[in-house]
Design goal:
There is one protein chain. The protein is an all-alpha fold. It is built from ten helices and two strands. The chain has a two-stranded antiparallel sheet with strand order 1-2.
Amino acid sequence: MTTPNIFILASDNSPQLLPFLRSNPSLASSQDAHGYSLLHAAASYNHHNLLRTLHHEFHVDPNMRDEDGETPLFVAETVETAQILIDDLHCDFSHKNDEGITAEERIRGEGDFVAVADYLKEVRMRESGGGNGEVQDGGGEEEQRPPPLPPNVTVNMGTATEEDVPEEVDRVFRAKIEELAAREDFRDEEGQRRLKELVTEAVRGVERGTDGRDVRRRVD
């Protein structure tokens, strides 16, 4: 009898998988040549009952790592899947892969499942005592820092020095960007559009304050 490909069965959430694993329980923790596990497959395809069964019945480690050092949390595509991995299976949300980045950072960097990254940020903030992940008055260093510019916005300050930037422009710009960062829609398309407009406005203000000198600025 040909042995079924259990990774394909897991991806398809096939009804043949669990009976087969109950007859061969040691295979529940199997990994392929790239370290891909049944838990990775179940997480990637949002098979929630399979996730729970693999962990609770077969005791599969939720922090199992693939060849890149990534756990099943790194392939979660929905908030519900991430919640199950963290709240039910107790997956380590702070684990870093071989490149030194967490699942939150990896998912946000790829940009496809921002809601999952936002949820992981909430978990991180909650566990670190930062409340529900919203900007807190008087909070820690992370809450007080203005967020980084989005990937589609870069600022090249050219040859300008601190003396080239009027103090009033700098102060107003900082206040505006901190106010914008506190908005719930900051990461949304509208929030990013507002940020780009704000950067453009600030740069134009700097150009007007350079006493007519030809100082190049670029906003992409």
